[in-house]
Amino acid sequence: MESVEVEKSKAYITVEIIEYVQNSVVIKTILKKSTGNISVMSFDSGEGLTEKTTPFDTFAQIIEGKAEIVVDGKPHLLETGQSIVIPAHAPNLVKPNGRFKMILTIIKSGYE
What we know:
Jelly Rolls; globular; mainly beta
């Protein structure tokens, strides 16, 4: 997992910040702060994230391809440009639907 933030005060095409790696999930940190973080992720075909819960609200946005994000047992098929807010403490998982890329923004403030 890449832990170095991207260079500040520089314009990016977000979908180009990260590449696909065969049979892998790749994560690159855009910003990491005590109050939350923003990461961009790429998923090769067949790769996803197992069910988990976090104590924080999470904003997930698909920036290329499509994926199924299951929140509290309810599936949501998201395509490029679509997003969802995953509430704190809600069980969630990410199922692949081919290769895709997404941005995850986690907000930690307010949950101290």
